[in-house]
Amino acid sequence: xxxxxxxxxxxxxxxxxxxxxxxxxxxxxxxxxxxxxxxxxxxxxxxxxxxxxxxxxxxxxxxxxxxxxxxxxxxxxxxxxxxxxxxxxxxxxxxxxxxxxxxxxxxxxxxxxxxxxxxxxxxxxxxxxxxxxxxxxxxxxxxxxxxxxxxxxxxxxxxxxxxxxxxxxxxxxxxxxxxxxxxxxxxxxxxxxxxxxxxxxxxxxxxxxxxxxxxxxxxxxxxxxxxxxxxxxxxxxxxxxxxxxxxxxxxxxxxxxxxxxxxxxxxxxxxxxxxxxxxxxxxxxxxxxxxxxxxxxxxxxxxxxxxxxxxxxxxxxxxxxxxxxxxxxxxxxxxxxxxxxxxxxxxxxxxxxxxxxxxxxxxxxxxxxxxxxxxxxxxxxxxxxxxxxxxxxxxxxxxxxxxxxxxxxxxxxxxxxxxxxxxxxxxxxxxxxxxxxxxxxxxxxxxxxxxxxxxxxxxxxxxxxxxxxx
Length: 470
Ligand SMILES: Cc1cc2nc3c(=O)[nH]c(=O)nc-3n(C[C@H](O)[C@H](O)[C@H](O)COP(=O)(O)O)c2cc1C
Known about the structure:
Layout: E1 8-11, H1 24-34, E2 44-48, H2 49-55, E3 59-61, H3 69-84, H4 92-100, E4 102-108, E5 112-116, E6 121-123, E7 137-139, H5 145-160, E8 165-172, E9 181-190, E10 194-195, E11 211-212, H6 214-226, E12 235-239, E13 245-246, H7 267-277, H8 292-302, E14 314-320, H9 323-342, H10 347-363, E15 366-373, H11 383-410, E16 414-418, H12 425-432, E17 438-447, H13 461-464
Parallel strand pairs: 2-8
Antiparallel strand pairs: 1-12, 2-12, 3-7, 4-5, 5-6, 8-9, 9-13, 10-11, 14-15, 15-17, 16-17
Helix pairs in contact: 1-5, 3-4, 8-11, 9-10, 9-12
The structure holds flavin mononucleotide.
Flavin mononucleotide is lined by residues 279-280, 282, 416-420, 455-456.
């Protein structure tokens, strides 16, 4: 396929004001006739979203909307910022309409950027007041712009027998530049992108990464003719652009997947990353001091974990690298040595094990002990419920421990959870003079990482989902 060196961008004049129920395909054919431009194979028609929305009844009267608590909350938070930037006030009713059209709020500052239910990221969910008559009436983006484009393409093809493409466009702002440009929101007959990877450049080099956003480029070119205000040209004919006709296309194919969209620093992405990136760090730590205040900030977050009957049985003790810690680990190792001897382990094995724990627990910049405070457990007269209460206590402190590990990850600290204290409860309690009701349960070594750690294997979802056969 070769490019032609001339492309015509022709605005169709004298398009009437569009009302609900108008047939856009008929209006296009009549306009082409009037303008003396019978359709040709390979033509592209770019249609402004506003007329598709109006004809399909995708309008809303803001005066009839009752804003929700959330809309009012957003209104209060963005109102001072919009004022500061000299932007028009967004009424709670408009915010509600935006929320109704959105899957997710991306940014709520002096502008409100959302991901629409279609997956487009744009200001105000594409809701528009311009070029709509009637006080309080706004247009919403078409429900399914690809479908609308497809319907028009097929009708025009049936009537004219020409293979053409349709693009429905809107003007979207851009994150890093001022100025809105025409953007395709629905397509039919043309691929949204033109993949030129593998083709040669002027110097014969193979293009490695170039993918051209052809429908957005066409929509942007058409926008120059359409204008934004009172030009009254919502339909533009593009003639001479050489493209490969394709019946099965959708604008959805160019919406970046959330997981790989590096510009989307939303909570979902951040939490996903946090959950997946956290690792148990068992390697030597970087020779860098860890501020105890940061550790306390992490423990502060671990307070928010769920716990059975909100018992909050977790108690944390921070041990910095001092003599108390060394003495404690030495005493624990004495017990470990005895336990391993009782197990009949070889001297060599015992030596390595003791060295390993000493390295882990003495050298870590910070060692945290997590205890379960049995004082807060419910008391029962029977052993079964007493045991169950103890189990739920353990489950609860484990949830706090998980929060703690995630908080470390968030602060770029590396950590590992060790169960050694379970085997040396009395030694820990005695050495650190812990209250009688404390039951030592876990150690966490914490510091800055020296190396990256690879994730160990995870079971597949299907392996951990048990479907009962009923
Ligand atoms: C309750 C609990 C006890 C653990 N005890 C130890 C331990 O004593 N020694 C150790 O090397 N790792 C211990 N770990 C860390 C696990 O080995 C680690 O979480 C697991 O291999 C998964 O790796 P990941 O945390 O990097 O995803 C413990 C983890 C948990 C949750």
